[in-house]
Write a structure and sequence with these properties.
- The protein is an alpha/beta fold.
- Helices cover about 45% and strands about 20% of the residues.
- It has six helices and five strands.
- The chain has helices at about 10-20, 35-40, 60-65, 70-75, 80-95, 140-170; strands spanning about 25-30, 50-55, 100-105, 120-125, 130-135.
- Strands 2-1-3-4-5 form a five-stranded mixed beta sheet.
- Strand 4 (about 120-125) and strand 5 form a beta hairpin.
- Helix 1 runs parallel beside helix 6.
- The radius of gyration is 15 Å and the shape is globular.
- The relative contact order is 0.18.
- The mean pLDDT is about 95.
């Protein structure tokens, strides 16, 4: 077995965290175009948590497939925390999952909506907590930015699931 055959450690941690809570996951991905869902799917046992994902690379699909309100897109743009949160909520709702992750950003080579290459927003919704988003500023070329966005989304997801688990245990 080579290292390429091993599951991504962040994805394995996310599958374990979600599975431990009995939660399922759905994604709505723009700049990562399904990479996050595919990374999670590489973990043995992922079928217990991964419901599916939406690839919403084009701005209009953020509305028609993921349910992001046109007003959100018009007011805040496709690359924003508001859109990332709406993508997360839309993914969970449309795929019938407990948890949603939305990824939107600029992988390059050019700026988008006035936002710099490497600007990424990760939205996450989990049961019992308001949807939240995190803005990232990532370095590198397209491939590096997309990989780093997936890794960051997995880390943020595990952190939020753990946080919610700790809050409910007290």
């Amino acid at each position: 077995m080579t290292s390429a055959d091993l599951p991504d450690p962040g994805a394995a941690a996310a599958v374990a965290a979600l599975g431990g809570r009995g939660w399922t996951l759905a994604t709505a991905e723009s700049l990562t175009a399904g990479m996050l869902a595919a990374t999670v799917a590489g973990v043995p046992g992922a079928s217990a948590v991964l419901r599916g994902g939406l690839v919403v690379y084009a701005t209009d699909l953020k509305h028609t497939l993921a349910g992001v309100a046109e007003e959100v897109l018009r007011r805040h743009g496709a690359v924003s925390g508001e859109t990332a949160r709406a993508l997360a909520l839309g993914a969970a709702e449309r795929c019938g999952a407990d948890v949603g992750v939305g990824l939107t950003g600029v992988a390059g080579p050019d700026r988008q909506e006035g936002r710099a290459v490497g600007t990424v927003h990760v939205g996450i919704c989990v049961p019992g907590v308001a949807a939240r988003s995190t803005e990232l500023s990532l370095d590198g070329g397209r491939a590096e930015i997309r990989r780093a966005a997936c890794a960051a989304a997995l880390d943020l997801l595990v952190g939020i699931v753990d946080e919610v688990g700790n809050e409910s245990a007290t």
